[in-house]
Amino acid sequence: YCCGGHYEENNLSGKGRVDKGRRSGGSYSSEKKVYAASGGGGDSDGTTASDRSKLVFFDKRKQFVLEDLLRASAEMLGKGNLGTVYKAVLEDGSIVAVKRLKDANPCGRKEFEQYMDVIGKLRHPNIVSLRSYYYAKEEKLLVYDYLPNGSLHSLLHGNRGPGRIPLDWTTRISLGLGAARGLARIHEEYSVSKIPHGNVKSSNVLLDKNGVACISDFGLALLLNPIHATARLGGYRAPEQAETRKLSQKADVYSFGVLLLEMLTGKAPALYSSPSQDEQEEDLPKWVRSVVRDEWTAEVFDPELLRYKNIEEELVAMLQVGLACVAQQAEIRPTMAEVAKMIEDIRIEQSPLGDDFDGSRSSLSPSLATTEDAV
């Protein structure tokens, strides 16, 4: 892989998030200093002063210059191992998400630009688009579309108190299908080079303004050291990665299977990590298998789902898909294209809420109407 590494970042609406409304005009203060200092000469990596003042764009939508970005009202959304994420409101009112990368990645300028070209050219309705990037020796910024409806993780695990609005089954299966299609597109696009996503988890499934699921952070795990990246996958890490310390498309499938089990059970994989490194991990897939083996299948499912009638067959079918994805042997796991097809075949002619289910459109549950913090 171009930059030889891996990455895992906190959910933007999770622990790393600041309170809504906390904005800081000085969030980009260090970037402004870098830009102001770029008036002459060039970096040792070949970056000229004019190069450092430019954003590189990947589409023909309305563009902006670096000064516009640096003047933007910025709200810090989260901090992770690769850097800091901001919600930036430009002067014309448009909103973007900006990742300010740490200097931890080993890429030189040419290598970094080649890698951004790989990520930036990918366009799909279920993938968060990289709109542009900025490279200087001192600063590296990635600019993405801003998605306003939070993550699957926040919808599943946020506000589990009395006032919580349940995430209904129709919405869950729609989000699962969207995420599967996005990941399948990544695997298809890079079927020869076998470039994986590298960090599949529920906090990297974001929802756009229509409630459509989009895979985020594609490829960014490859910017870090592989050992660090696989270690930070936590409960989403495939068994073989404990030894190989490598990312792969088959490991992506395993991570996606964990995500499906998380969606079905309502349980976060992190809850099943071992409290001691000397003990064997009791991960979510292992727990699900043990419950199913003891024929207590109904106990597997999120109690929020059991309030809906006539969805038992769909729940069990989705459970089978999830278990196929988390097969211990990588070679017998399905491809993501096959996973997407299996989910498409789980038909819901009538949703539990009475609306016709259509996998091609969003199914915005009441839960989404209360979610505003996102990437």
Question: What does this protein structure show overall?
Answer:
The chain has 375 residues and is an alpha+beta fold. The protein folds into two domains: 29-145, 2-Layer Sandwich (Phosphorylase Kinase, domain 1), CATH 3.30.200.20; 152-366, Transferase(Phosphotransferase) domain 1 (Transferase(Phosphotransferase), domain 1). It contains twelve helices and eight strands. It has helices at residues 29-36, 49-52, 66-71, 109-120, 152-157, 169-189, 226-231, 241-244, 249-265, 284-293, 312-325, 336-344, and strands at 56-57, 73-79, 83-89, 95-101, 130-135, 140-145, 205-207, 213-215. The strands form two sheets. Strands 1-5-6-4-3-2 form a six-stranded antiparallel beta sheet. A two-stranded antiparallel ribbon has the order 7-8. Strand 5 and strand 6 (140-145) form a beta hairpin. Helix 6 packs antiparallel against helix 9 (249-265) and helix 6 (169-189) packs antiparallel against helix 12 (336-344). The longest helix is centred in the middle third of the chain and has 21 residues, at 169-189. The two termini are 26 Å apart. The relative contact order is 0.15. The model is unreliable at 5-42, 273-278 and 349-375 (pLDDT under 50). Residues 71-348 form the Protein kinase domain. Residues 13-47, 351-375 are annotated as: Disordered.
The coarse overall form would be globular
Largest sheet features: 6 strands, antiparallel
Strand segment count: 8
**Quaternary status of these chains?**
single chain
* Average pLDDT over all residues: 76
Radius of gyration: 21 Å
What is the level-2 CATH architecture name of the largest domain? Orthogonal Bundle
Helical content band: 25-40%
CATH topology group of the largest domain: Transferase(Phosphotransferase), domain 1
Could you give the order of strands across the largest sheet?
A: 1-5-6-4-3-2
Helix-strand category: alpha+beta
Kindly estimate the percentage of residues that lie in beta strands according to DSSP. Answer: 5-15%
Query: In angstroms, what separates the terminal alpha carbons?
Result: 26 Å
Give the domain tally: 2
CATH C-level of the largest domain? Mainly Alpha
Total of helices: 12
Written as H for each helix and E for each strand, in order along the chain, the element string is: HHEHEEEHEEHHEEHHHHHH
Low-confidence stretches: 5-42, 273-278, 349-375
